[in-house]
Give the backbone structure.
Amino acid sequence: MTERLYYQHKLYECEARVVACVPCENGYTVTLDRTVIFPESGGQLPDTGFIGDARVLDAQESGDDVVHMCDKPLEVGADVVVKIDVEQRLDYTQQHTGEHIISGIISSMFGGTNVGFHMAKDYCTVDTDIVLSKEQLDIIELEANKAVRDNVAIITKTVDAAELENYTLRKKTKGLQGEVRIVFIGNVDSCTCCGTHCEYSGEVGAVAITDSMKYKQGTRIWFSCGERAIKEAQNNAKIVASIANRFSTGREEAYNAVVRQGDELSALKRELKKRTDMLFEYKASELVNGAESAGNAKIVVATLDEFNMQELKMLCEKIPQDKNLAVVLLSKVGENVFYQIKTGKNIKQNAKEICLVVNAMTGGKGGGRDDFAQGSCNSNLNVEETLCQLSAYLKKSLA
Ligand SMILES: [Zn+2]
């Protein structure tokens, strides 16, 4: 059974003896007679650190023991020094204690129950079973920071599970047996918990609610505490300042400036579409007016400069349906050549068949329906030469 020293405030280092060391997939699992390294539990991430010169990458509960995942083997029976990553522990402890404060305030002020907590290396969330408005979240954030400023002592008490019924707590973990830890944060929170907590609420530093969304029947809240909260505030301030700077306006006006630009962009897109439609209609009638005759058939074979597949298709669609008309449009964009084919029902070869001919001439791939086909090739094709060949072929075969 590992003696757990990690609940002692500000104890970041201890001496210990190696009890077991077993190779595993990613290194070695090491068991000690005692440890300051907190194993992952109760939603709190595990400490990392060192045992001797072996790096501790992870720590987990295993029955009565704490099992450390190390990158090097340690000699069984050896006396070693165990150290944790102090900055990381402080960060995790601040987030964890902050979660208690937020959950306690949600419960006492709005009657919400904590139904989930997730701590990641770069964010934390807490889920409650009630819907909270932005205004309510602002109140919770202010109250949480007041609880931090009050700097109340955080008391932990170890009792037998059978005694739990004597306590009124925000949360009692179900099915507990034997010794149970209870955590009290002044009149803000009380619950059973196996995590590490600050000694005083002031050590949380700051609590920032950074985002929220409706989740199941309640609310998911993103928050950060301590230095995380400050760094996030610094980062957000930089983002707002750079947006304001980009729009040559003050920070308070930055949001309105973005909205205004978005509205202007939407209006310009609508105008551009209207004018593109007009231009394509004009271009389509120009192409039809220049059609060459082959017997009863009229043939349009043309190249367009820098028209992508979608634009070429739009132009092809603007050409009015005509039972005697065959249209082949090509466009080269960089190394790609796109083609669109459209045929009326009196044309001897349908669009699909003409497409096979274009595929063969260009080494491209394409296909489609009887009245409409498209394709593309990737080559150093001489488009003008292909156009001449195609025009000659169609004049002959469609006449
Ligand atoms: Zn806790």
